[in-house]
Amino acid sequence: MLYDKDMSAKEVKMSDKHYREPGRIFEGSGLVNPEESYYVSLDNVTNKNKQDIHTMIDRGRYFSIFAPRQSGKTTFLTGTCRHLHNDPTYVAIILSFQNYSSLDKTQFYASIQRYLYSRLVGRLKEVDCEKTEAVNRFLDNHRLVDHISFMLLFEELDLILQFKKIVIFIDEFDGIPLAELGNFLTALRELYQKYKGIKQKALYSIGLVGIRNIAKLVVGGVSPFNIADQVALPPFSPGNVRDLFGQYTGETHQPFTAAAVERVYEETAGQPWLVNRLGTILTRDIKPETVEPIDEPDVEKAVHILLKERNDHFDNLYEKAKLYKETFVEIVFDHVEYNPDDEDQTWLEQYGLIKNNNGFAFVANHIYKARYLKTFFKERHKDKS
For residue range 302-326, what is the model confidence (pLDDT) as tens digits? Predict the structure, then answer.
């Protein structure tokens, strides 16, 4: 529910209500649990053919999802798994390669085995699969030691599991050990090509998730994952922001004016972490424990507070911006044409710092620009002096 700013104070008072303590929070880090935090499903998560994620999975597609950190990737994956698990045909598993980059080959595949096997058997037991014991016996004797054994795993499961569809999401795929990147992607490519068009297959669909556009990776002069659909995770839409704040209103009776919601979206361009952080500041620091409506001037105050904060989100982005400082400074201060083949622009975009706006490169949102404008302005003048 949104508050109409034209309502009189008397109408507001009559409309109800007393403030109630919220049961959830605006999430500021990590996975969003809908039971503990306000949660919205992202709009328009599609490939270039406008197929949504569930259509891609139903068709047995391999795909890569890329988006900056703290933009809701893990939350999106978890929600997708919950949806898939409404159908006992699907065995949806989330793995993560976070902190894997320093592992050698033996450690890397042993880690995959440990998590993949336990989740696979757990899900099969969950749906009372009659082949669970047969799978268990096979897994007891099959060790993952390299990409070949990884391929053989699914070739054998294909013979055992006739009517189950394994879907694997690999989060933080950027954390894969570089020495194994080419082998692993090539193994996935070969599995895809071998079973393409076959409806009854164990490894039915796979999604690699990270900040990089994995389909563009070139290893040894070739792109081993160019068989995949490319999916860019979008920011919150205006409707997402409205729904998120509406959940808070439903719990507490404290409304947001339509102008306030619009201003939050304008300042953040829907970046999920920024939207949630402003939600926390507005409801905990600006107008706490009241049914007095949150309006546009309140958002201005919240943005000012946020811009003065020290937090990991801003610190991390600043370190990334410094890696491509000259290009970022040009985009902040000048009218720069967007070039998808420019390496600096590509990295800045993947980190979520810039975006393509009608053929020109722009800082991703007003808050990022305001946060870094003075910093880089001072550094630019120091460089010139």
Answer: 999 999 999 999 999 999 999 998 8
